[in-house]
Amino acid sequence: EREEHLEITDLAWNSSGFILAASLGRYDHEGMCQHNSFVYVWNINRRDFKTDAPTFTIETNSCIMCLEFHPASPSLLAGGSYDGEIFIWDLSKQGEYLLFSSKIDEYFHRECITQLLWIETNVQNTNRDPYNLLSVSTDGKLSLIHISEPTRQAEISYAVFCLKKK
What we know:
Elements: E1 7-13, E2 19-25, E3 37-43, E4 56-60, E5 64-69, E6 76-81, E7 86-90, E8 98-101, E9 113-120, E10 128-137, E11 141-148, E12 154-162
């Protein structure tokens, strides 16, 4: 079975209260994650809702360790992977959920993302979402990613802050 040996690593409810997401992954890696993982999504507001089967499944190439729904756009879900990638999915898009994925390079994370948080900004521009996605990783970096509106295409607009170890 494809979910063999995977554990639930995080749960997230969207702001409407109708969608629950669960990420599956593993904590026992030695080095980079070498297997696929999944995010299960249940929409409890659907007529065909079943408690024993997710409404749909998103497959990823690395364990998803944390999830966070956008506070004002209930269909946007962010996930952070064991390998340091950030994914943003638009759950309103049937079948083509992936909106954005970061790459593993010198600017983005290179280790396990431990937390994601949508933070509100004071930007009053109508073409910008007033929220940025903050991520923190075991590599000591904080990353801030901005998603533009209304196209919801991820801008290459981010900042990286490094925490120095003493």
